[in-house]
Amino acid sequence: MSKKAFILVDYTIDFVAADGKLTVGEPGQKLEKSIVSKIRETITKEGLVLVVNDLHNEHDNRHPEHSLFPPHNIEGTEGRKLFGEVDEVLNQMEEENPGKVIRLDKRRYSAFCGTPLELILRQENIHEIELAGVCTDICVFHTAVDAYNKGFQVVIDESAVASFNQKAHEVALDHFKSVMGFDVKRRG
Fold first, then answer.
1. Domains: count for the chain
2. Which pick of 15, 33, 44, 68 has the fewest CB atoms within 10 Å?
3. What's the CA gap between 164 and 95, in Å, rounded?
4. Is 77 exposed, middle or buried (0-12, 13-18, 19+ CB in 10 A)?
């Protein structure tokens, strides 16, 4: 039986809290219980939890996102911390299960771009990943496309992804299922 990985993308204060710098708001906040449950379940089943978050520098005006979005997930700010109970649970899981939680920083939409994510998954003999976090149609989407192109099996549970654009969220979920053949768990 091969191990599985749960990859949490950008579930930070800046992306989820009501006063976050680039917040999804309530749709993101509603994911909290599902994400916490999936983290605990992954660790219990001897899987790997990877947390991959945007890292920006407030003085980097050459970054492509600089002209597209307000400053967010700035290094050293409160906004980069994980949102709500997710932060507490991950800290506890790291302490109790050394090596089962890995945190990575990314500077582009995809969690694979410029990070050792693929190397870690291959070294751990992981072929199936579950993606969660925000935004379904931006960072989760670009991570999913890269995972597809790298040959990983991908699961996406609608109860663990959200966006500030509901229409784009729905289009991304449909694309995951009908174009990429992912296992997409839909609500209701």
1. 1
2. 68
3. 33
4. middle
Q: What is the 3-state secondary structure (H, E, C) of 37-87?
A: HHHHHHHHCCCEEEEEEECECCCCCCCHHHHCCCCCCECCCHHHCECHHHH
pLDDT digits (tens, 9 = 90+) for 55-111: 877 767 666 666 666 667 777 888 899 999 999 999 999 999 999 999 999 988 999
Containing structural domain, residue 76: 4-185
- Name beta bridge partners: 155: 130, 183
Crossing angle for the helix pair 166-178 and 139-149, nearest 10 degrees? 10
C-alpha 146/C-alpha 120 separation (Å) is 15
CA 19 from centroid of its chain's CA atoms: 20
C-alpha 109/C-alpha 172 separation (Å) is 15
CATH no. for residue 86? 3.40.50.850
How far is 186 from 43, CA to CA, in rounded Å?
Answer: 23
Going by C-alpha positions, the residue among 163, 158, 162, 150 that lies closest to residue 177 is 158
Kindly report whether the global pTM for this prediction surpasses the value 0.85.
yes
The closest of 173, 176, 120 to 153, measured between CA atoms, is 176
